[in-house]
Amino acid sequence: xxxxxxxxxxxxxxxxxxxxxxxxxxxxxxxxxxxxxxxxxxxxxxxxxxxxxxxxxxxxxxxxxxxxxxxxxxxxxxxxxxxxxxxxxxxxxxxxxxxxxxxxxxxxxxxxxxxxxxxxxxxxxxxxxxxxxxxxxxxxxxxxxxxxxxxxxxxxxxxxxxxxxxxxxxxxxxxxxxxxxxxxxxxxxxxxxxxxxxxxxxxxxxxxxxxxxxxxxxxxxxxxxxxxxxxxxxxxxxxxxxxxxxxxxxxxxxxxxxxxxxxxxxxxxxxxxxxxxxxxxxxxxxxxxxxxxxxxxxxxxxxxxxxxxxxxxxxxxxxxxxxxxxxxxxxxxxxxxxxxxxxxxxxxxxxxxxxxxxxxxxxxxxxxxxxxxxxxxxxxxxxxxxxxxxxxxxxxxxxxxxxxxxxxxxxxxxxxx
Length: 417
Prior knowledge:
Layout: E1 2-9, E2 20-23, E3 25-27, E4 32-36, E5 43-49, E6 52-57, E7 62-66, E8 77-81, E9 86-91, E10 100-102, E11 105-112, H1 119-125, H2 143-158, E12 182-186, E13 192-196, E14 202-207, E15 210-215, E16 221-225, E17 235-241, E18 251-254, E19 263-264, E20 272-275, E21 281-285, E22 291-296, E23 302-305, E24 316-322, E25 332-335, E26 345-348, E27 355-356, E28 373-376, H3 396-410
Parallel strand pairs: 3-7, 4-8
Antiparallel strand pairs: 1-2, 1-4, 5-6, 5-10, 6-7, 8-9, 9-11, 12-13, 13-16, 14-15, 14-17, 17-18, 19-20, 20-23, 21-22, 21-24, 24-25, 26-27, 26-28
């Protein structure tokens, strides 16, 4: 059954509100005046269920007014249509705190309802619409009232104007929530979420308090792009919102929990090594897709591969990782580098003048001598001291820088030495 209704916030005139057509349920978002285009004779009983008011009609139809009894300073008020199309206030003040049938009384407001004429419909049906002020609703059905209710129902459903009224047809209110999102899947790198939902609806996604939105296409597909890969076991909550603002029940899934990010160390081509989530599969390949090696990360999160022969300088290598569970972090690209670093600058202690190292370094950088040299790497001369060992001549410059950094990191040398 479709019933014409008007809803206005407390403090506003309900007869001036826009007419809407409701079926089965009329939801309220705040304490309101509610007018229904039915006569008192068309109602058999009123029942309270929690915060809802249930209106049972003579023809067997039921209308639920949701949140009618929601907590508020001023409670909602109900009106029907009586003689001469005037509003009739329904007094439900005898409603108990608990659920159950409510005894109701009626009082004419002396104000036109603003609905289409009920009187003409009642006359055509052979019934009457009178109900005196202060009358108590009873259990006896009134045939004329039923006929009027049926006639109103037919007019509302067909949109016709049999009584000559100029009231235009009113579109039904959409209060049906959409179905929850389905087929939720994270991409292998956990940067994209795909799924299905009502076409043209809005998707609202919450990831541990961070909000994302997307729009469902006409085929019912959607994609949500995250700012960064979800790898911490985050909870992803998805809600579908239709054009009328109705929200679906939430759908959830969890992102993978990646214990350790993938890394690869700089390499001169003799060995490649790095770290990743334990028991992940590491695939090393060229940019054109040629696979060079496949290895497995050990229980401590380490992996390595020794190419034979060694890779030449400038070779590009892509590291692909597949963690347990199928998660794929971003691909890491490295470049084989056989070029030694730039030679360090040294100076005699205290003279403050840097001298680039060139030629053989058969001497040594030592500690404590007035003529000994200090290694300088971004610091003033005479601040940090270290010792060189006699390595192969081709790599002495590289060894000088490397060992100097090693001694500083380990605390073997420091300011003033």
